[in-house]
Structure formats: C-alpha cells, structure tokens
Specification:
By secondary structure, this protein is of the alpha/beta class. It has helices spanning 3-9, 37-49, 59-79, 92-104, 125-128, 151-157, 180-189, 236-239, 265-280, 288-315, 344-353, 366-371, 391-403, and strands at residues 18-19, 22-23, 25-26, 86-89, 112-116, 136-140, 142-143, 148-149, 164-168, 193-197, 216-220, 230-234, 320-323, 334-339, 356-357, 359-361, 380-384. The protein folds into 2 domains: 3-28 and 288-403, Alpha-Beta Complex (Aspartate Aminotransferase, domain 1), CATH 3.90.1150; 41-278, Aspartate Aminotransferase, domain 2 (3-Layer(aba) Sandwich), CATH 3.40.640.10. It is built from 13 helices and 17 strands. α7 links the parallel β9 (164-168) and β10. It is globular and about 60 Å long. It binds pyridoxal-5'-phosphate (PLP).
Amino acid sequence: MSDWVAAIRRHFPSLGLQIKGEAAAFFDGPGGTQVPSAVIEAMATYFQEANANTHGAFLTSRRTDEMLQEARSTVAAFLGAAPHEIAFGANMTTLNYALSRALGRLLSPGDTVLITDMDHEANRGPWLALAEKGIRILRAPIDRQRAILHEEAFLRLLEERPRIVAVGWASNAVGSIPDLPRLLQRARDVGAITVVDAVHYAPHYPMDVKAMAVDFLLCSAYKFFGPHVGILYGREEVFRELPTYKLLPQEDAIPYRIETGTLNHEGIWGTQAAIRWIASLAQKEGSLRAQLEASMEAIARHEEELFAVLWKALAQMADITLYGPGPEAPRTPTLGFTHARHSPREVASRLAEKGLFIWDGDFYATTLMAELGLQERGGLCRIGLAPYNTMEEVERLLQAIEDL
Ligand SMILES: Cc1ncc(COP(=O)(O)O)c(C=O)c1O
C-alpha cells in the first residue's frame, strides 16, 4: 500500500469494519462514500457549540449564521463560484425538482426541454414532469455500442431550440463523460438555460463552473466524503430571475429564495469539513481553490491507476462483459459489468460474503439500463473507486470475481 493511500485511510474510522475476519473493502463510492473523522467531528461540534435556528440575537444562532456563510464560501471554492451562488437542500433530487418547478414557470405550452437517456432519473424526472404543462420533452439518445451519450444526436436536437437543456457530467452507472464544455456552449448558443448534474463527477475531478456555459449545477455532498446534503450552484444573472416557489417571509435574495424551510445545519457544516478535508490532502500552501485543484488531481491519479488495472484484468475474464469506454477515454473510475452465469445481485451477494462491497441494480439510471437491454436482467454490477481504495483491495476483488 502506498504511503499516500495509507495516510488517507487513517482518516476513515469506518474502514475498520470486518466481515468474517476480513477487512471490508468499500467499492460502493458511487452510491455514497465513507466519511473522514474531520466530518464526523465537525457535525458533533455544530451540535455542541452552535445548535440553533438562524437570525437570532443570541450566541448559538449567530454562530449558526456564520457557519452557514462559511460553508457557502467553502463550497463556492470547490465549484469555482461565488458564495451567494450556492444554495443547500435535502439532496440533489429535491433541489432539482424545486429548480424545474421554478424554471417551468418561465415556459409556455409548446416550449421544449432537452434531457438525455444517459442521465440518472434525478435529472430526467423533474423535467419530464413539465410535460403536464404542455412542455415538449426531447430525449438525446445513447450510443448503445459504447454506453455513452450520442453527442451528435444531442447537438442535432439543439436545432429545435430548447429553452432548457439538462445533462449529466458523468454517468453514475458506467462512468462515461461527454464533452460537456462543447455541449453546453452549443446549448447556450441556441439560447437555452443549462442545468448540469455533477453528482457523479464531483468526487473525481476538479470543477470550475465559470469555465463552462453552465447556469445551474447540482451535486451531493455524500458522494464526496460529506453528509447527506444537496448543493445547487446558480449563475447569479439567471438565479436572480428564478421564480421559485417560496414562503412569504422567506428571503427573496439569492441563494435563499430556493432554500425552503430550516436547512440541515449540521450537515452543511459537515459538508464544508469534507471539502476542507479534501483540500488538506494537497499538503501545500495557497488558496483553498488551489489546494482543492491539487488534491482532486492527486485523487484522480490514484483512482485512474487502480482503474486501469481493474479494467484490464476484467476485460480478460471470459465470463465478464464490461460497459462504457475503457481507461483511455474520459471517464470516472466507475465500472459497470455483467457476469455470464450470475445475476448482478448474485455477484454482489457472493462478493459481500467476502467483505467486498459493490452495488448491483440500475442505480436510478433506469432509462440507460433499458436502452442497454439490462433492465430485466437485474441491471449491472458496479465497482466504484475512491481515494481510500488500495491496489491490494483491487487484487482481492479481482480474485473473488475470478473465483465466481
Ligand atoms: C448522477 C446522479 N445524479 C443524481 C443523483 C441523486 O442524488 P441525491 O441522492 O442527492 O438526490 C445521484 C445519486 O445516486 C447520482 O448518482
């Protein structure tokens, strides 16, 4: 095990879990990563020192206000945004419904919205719901052979001048990544408001919202070492005009206009702790943003190294079919596969007995699974890599799959 990964693992108390005397190996990151002590402690600190509602005259309430503000600044650094462009919510799905309901108010019957068949249902369902108002929904298809978005078909559909374009940055099922900057620029060129689901991309690569033509971007802290909190970035110029559904006394300014009810304060404080923990991996001086970029690059390098070994070995196993592009293409270290003789649930159950935690199913990428003809067969097995995974764990996993 490299010193880098050994040092990282010391931060994660949950990695001590044993199954029948063997250390558990967590390959379930795309469904939610493990959490470092710094995040657990930050959440406890919130409860011990600042637990109150916002905007009161007394100490714990003032602390809560300050902590939420600091968390917005930290998330802003993570995304390359400004603090007032960062809103929090229960999770990505709930925020995206709030966004679609609000944007839907700007549309008229006959207007079009473009979504993709690659996406998690959380970036499809909220837009499909607009069909009830007479909005036409266009669906960009997948390239079935490679399990990636059919980008040329997507670009052709832009000729219909959709008012909103909702697209994922990376597939949570097979890891493929489209040429998003190009797709977003073309969407903006035809006048669309652009919405990006970055939930699966966020744990793996640095992000800069100002470097792309993106108006709204969503992610979820529990996918990058944080607690269960949803995050919405809204580009100021568009966010300011967003007609959200809100209570009368709720603040109208951004980002508050989309934040209904009392937020998950302890989770938000844990979210900033997760981002600061990522930044700490860089072990270098500089701005938070510079540290985050360096850390995310280091995470990506580690994950890519493990992924290349995993992909190559599985590609050589006769019973295994791999989905999505290989390591040479832009992708996350998330590998979808099927076994010729065992259903995904059987594979996951057999591996679970050996302490190897992988996901099986459709992961809510339901349309993609149907398009790949996998829905009736139990979907895919999904191996996800995180910075705390080791080469030894990967070798153990490969041996166990071979032994099936
Ligand atoms: C790509 C992608 N988008 C959206 C979601 C939904 O996120 P949340 O659970 O925060 O609603 C997930 C969750 O797995 C996801 O992987």
